Amino acid sequence: MNILFFSPIDLSFGAGFEGWLSKVCLITKEPMKITVICGDVGVPKRWNDDLLKSKFKGINLIKLHYWNFFDKFFFPDFFSLVRLYKEFIKNNIIYFNCVFIGNDLLTFFLSLITRKRVIFAFHAPIFFENKIHNLYFKLITFNLVRFIYAVHVLNSKDEQNLKKYNSNTFNIPAFLLNSEYPKKNFSNYNGELLFVGRYDYQKGLDLLSPAIIKLIKINNKLHFVFYGSGPDRPILENLVRQFPNNVELNNFEMNKTNIFKYRKFFILVSRFESCPAVAIEAMSYGLPVITSKIPGTISLIKEAESGFFVPELNLDSICQTIGDAALINKMKYDKMSKIAFLEAQKYSENMFKKMFLKMIELK
Q1: Least buried of 23, 48, 320, 344, by fewest C-beta within 10 Å?
Q2: What is the largest CA-CA distance in the chain?
Q3: How many CB atoms lie within 10 A of CB 1?
Q4: What pLDDT digit, counting tens, does each position of 101-135 carry?
């Protein structure tokens, strides 16, 4: 079976889809012949060309050029359209990363004229603050979903929304490769509180930073470690200048052991997520997760068992939740850490491969 993975977003952008896709290619390239097409949308780039080639070694990787209309609408140029059409013809199934207004219509149209089966995949949150995006998805995307082969979502909330339009909607969450799982629990009750991800609006650093300032003024024994890159880095640089002994700022890092080993909690205060694989990575090291209560995390975290939910995304709520978590006793912490470690084992490559191949073949 030939399968084409198509995403308008540049894989070098490093928003998360590229990491998921590289793992999918690794564990499914035996039963399938895989082609990957991406656009050139998304700046700045977190992955360089060498890293991209190493992650997609042996995979036919094609990049298209997209016209940019006011940083709001993106559409492939003529030559890219021709290339995309030819690749549709060559493949049996098209797996489309459903982002950007209009690209779903393009994919649906190409599937009609080439008579190919298409899977719409929702790796980004279906709804967020962009009202135009939300309205378009409600009026256009959801109705297109009625006529396609299948739908892939990563959390139960999206499954509920989309199953109304297409009964072949599959909830297959993020996963870890067997090689990514550490051999034991590496959490540390006396360790730092950790943040990993893109430094941007979605991740809520503008909300987390003032909460950290308030927390350190109350308890100067707290220490926070950041790994990542992105446009909101100046927020964290200012935090380091104020509290150089309490805040450590690092660049984008690929070595998971360096990131997660011997930390205490993982902090995720995103405004929206579909299914944050980084939270699963943190739990696999035994780190309980302090997270915003959004569709992408409700299925992953169990309140007061594998982590704590921040009930509202505001300064007081974030501060209160992190402050309370930092003060739990070691017995309770060790119990939570053990639960988090065990919960992470559910998201294995074996689980994913079985469900993914079932979706592809609809057996």
Answers
A1: 48
A2: 64
A3: 13
A4: 999 999 999 999 999 999 999 999 898 878 999 99
